[in-house]
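Q: What changes when magnesium ion is included in the input?
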Amino acid sequence: MEQTFTLAQLGWKNFFQQQLEADNTLIPARVCRQDRSGYQLMSEHGILLGSLPGISRLEVRSKAELPTVGDWVLVRKVEADNPNQVIIHTTLERSTKFSRKEAGEKFGEQVVAANIDTIFIVTGLDDNFNVKRIERYLLLTWASGATPVIVLNKADLCSNLEKKLDQVAQVSMGTVTLVVSAMNDEGMDDLKEWITEGTTVAVLGSSGVGKSTIINRLLGYSHFKTGDVREGDSKGRHTTTHRELCLIDTGGLVIDTPGMREIQFWVDKNSSLSSYDDVESIAMTCRFNDCVHEAEPGCAVKKAMESGELGEDRFNSYIKFQKEIAFFEEQQNASLKLERKNEHKRFTKLIRHRPTKRD
Ligand SMILES: Nc1nc2c(ncn2[C@@H]2O[C@H](COP(=O)(O)OP(=O)(O)OP(=O)(O)O)[C@@H](O)[C@H]2O)c(=O)[nH]1
Ligand SMILES: [Mg+2]
Ligand SMILES: [Zn+2]
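A: The predicted holo structure follows.
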């Protein structure tokens, strides 16, 4: 018999219930995968295959508004050869979203995963270990609204764990950090504690860190393809090419994602700076509120660095982040302007092409 799901199993919450429309012929469903053939959805009616009505692609202001993995949508069955074929009517407002800049030259927002409670930030404890990268993922995770958990995988390949844990502690600001080995099936129960019924966990990290291997372990079978890593730097080969949400049979949902080639910001300044609460709260007590912490009198930041309360590395990365965010915001705004301009063109075109009475 075909597998069906309860809404609670799929992560349905009050937040979504409140958005239900009066039209109760619409069926709520959760996007688990998207490819050329359409959207694969999980619902009380089993697995459905959804597509968007033609017009809706034009109606959205940016691609980020189109349904993505993890989204809740309202669908309607259509008369088709395949009884599971549905049309996506509405995308419900997201409770959280993890975004990044689109890959390549583009500057649009790509929503990697929607409605996630927790993000596993996975790093390998092999040659690919990189604290700066963990710090970046943390920043993006805080901006997403989800709770980060740092997962240090491949413990079986690590001989200086204490040192690496120290390095992580410098940037993690108390974020839960778990040491696991998917290969040896170690620490998987610690991960499972975060994947309780109805919660959604996105698994993020660069290629080759073992995201798919971990999820296969959690599932108990090899659902996702895994690939080997390069000798020397332990980098992966971009084995996973699709994002996919799946249900763990002990409850809870996980999203496998392709390793990010380039991790780039898509954030707004205010939410991102909250990951530097420690520095920000010291800076608040500087004498001048436009203090740049260089040579100003009464600079609390300088003082905190002298006393050792604030590490110099931490301060430097804060300054670097501020610059990166400012730069990115500029780019973001420029691309938004361009998008609006193109949108304007499109609509004027539409109007111009409308037949007039004289025709
Ligand atoms: N030694 C060791 N190898 C591991 C561990 N976990 C995963 N691997 C190996 O690391 C390689 C990459 O694993 P994947 O699961 O494909 O990595 P991924 O993060 O999904 O990579 P992409 O899909 O490319 O983003 C595979 O050869 C795995 O067998 C581990 O705990 N220890
Ligand atoms: Mg993978
Ligand atoms: Zn200052």
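Observations recorded in class: The radius of gyration is 23 Å.
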